[in-house]
Amino acid sequence: MISSIDDNGVSRRNFIAGSAATVAAGTALSPELLQAKALGDREVKIALIGCGGRGTGATVQALSTYGKVRLWAMADAFEPNLMKSYRSLSAGGNYSQSKGAEAPADKVSVPEERRFVGLDAYRKVMAMPEIDMVILTTPPGFRARQFEEAVAAGKHVFMEKPVATDVHGVRTVLAAAKEAKRKNLKVGVGLNRRHSPMYEATLDRIHAGDIGRLNTIRIYNVRGGVGKFYERQPEDTEMEYQVKHWYYFDWLSGDFLVEQSVHDYDVALWMKGMLPINAQGQGGRLVRTGTKWGNIYDHFYVEYDFPDGSKLLSQHRHIRGCWGLFGESADGSKGTASLVGKSRAMVQMHDQPNNAAWRIKETGNSYQIEHDRLFRAIREDTPHNEAEYGAHASYAAILGRMAAYTGKMLDWEETLKSDHRITPAGELWSSPAPVNPLPEGGYPIDKAGMPPRIRA
């Protein structure tokens, strides 16, 4: 179990990864603190906050779980996003990541008075006592605050990854995770590899000692790049433009290292069963050099040290025409294990021929499984709180980004105690954006040798 530095911080002592930690934490609750009760067979009313493609897909998966469930309310910063999602869900539309799962139209009951628009629209959902569970799929820069509000309102939660984009957000999520446990609220995080049969089977072998002591873990997110472009419109405020173009601003996405590679960091910490003590690295912009790229990098390399002397080595590159891989490898004293994205895994012993390697392919839909398990916990009142390991994985990526941005070696515990914040306090379109354009065009880019940027 992880011991705390303070109410929001986390020490680097060994922790029990995965569901075992969740169960152990949940059993410590005294009966008088258990506020949320099992919902059993009754209808679960859910609300979608953040109506983009991932939010629509997560809602399809939630509505595809066993038992009575109904989409009761929706909220988004922009009305066109909300209405596109509403029309798709109302028509029973499917989503590619759910592999054919369809949300029956009769499970969608969202009249106009339960559709909310604006940066602060989520607050109207939180104020609805009939909502049992919220799906948080806005840009990640808003996630920590919305999770905190959901817990305060007594809602069960599914939130996408990453759960924060700065240290302030990580501390907020860790504190809210404690409160969620106290209230017996169930929390799922979209680190779906934790629910992949292939990953579970491979990690079981690693934790059983099949490849011995882990000396080095390597993670890779090197591919052509992702993220849609939004063209600035004359009527956009600076805040509106950045939220619409969210992937390319670090306060909203965390940079691609955080937004995408958080999956790999989660697997690395799950493999190792302990938290790093520091990080140092480098990165920059080789092809993302125009004004349309916001202020994010296109490549990173970051190294982490663990307390036992082992290392985590991480490569991240979004540049077309290069060698590519999205996966994780563990090098142990007796063998190696490798996992390639969502497709295949292998465990190879040093003293065995290649044809004796243990191999496995994916056999399930981890996107659906994570919702099935969350809703089962809500209905049966079993422990389920993934916010803590979601915060650890997000923070590992954030620490790596900060190390690369500054060129410094950063200590895990000391940085977690810091006031580092790049997300805004305002929730209005007229609120100042955290990053302002330069007079000559483009945005300020963090560079090695400079201190980490903090919101004014």
Write the layout of secondary structure elements.
Blueprint lengths: L18 H8 L17 E6 L3 H11 L5 E8 L2 H12 L24 E3 L4 H5 L6 E4 L6 H10 L3 E4 L7 H16 L4 E3 L7 H11 L6 E10 L14 H7 L5 H4 L2 H4 L2 H11 L5 E7 L14 E7 L5 E8 L6 E8 L2 E6 L3 E6 L8 E4 L4 H15 L6 H20 L3 E2 H5 L40
Parallel strand pairs: 1-2, 1-4, 2-3, 4-5, 5-6, 7-10
Antiparallel strand pairs: 7-11, 8-9, 8-15, 9-10, 11-12, 12-13, 13-14
Question: Would you summarize the structure shown here?
Answer:
The protein has 14 helices and 15 strands. The chain is of the alpha/beta class and 456 residues long.
Could you describe the 3D structure shown?
The chain has two domains: 19-193 and 368-385, NAD(P)-binding Rossmann-like Domain (Rossmann fold, 3-Layer(aba) Sandwich); 195-364 and 397-416, 2-Layer Sandwich (Dihydrodipicolinate Reductase, domain 2), CATH 3.30.360. Helix content is 30%, strand content 19%. The chain has helices at residues 19-26, 53-63, 79-90, 122-126, 143-152, 167-182, 197-207, 238-244, 250-253, 256-259, 262-272, 366-380, 387-406, 412-416; strands at residues 44-49, 69-76, 115-117, 133-136, 156-159, 187-189, 214-223, 278-284, 299-305, 311-318, 325-332, 335-340, 344-349, 358-361, 410-411. The strands form two sheets. The protein has a nine-stranded mixed sheet with strand order 14-13-12-11-7-10-9-8-15. A six-stranded parallel sheet has the order 3-2-1-4-5-6, sandwiched between helices. Helix 11 crosses helix 13 (387-406). The model is unreliable at 1-34 and 95-100 (pLDDT under 50).
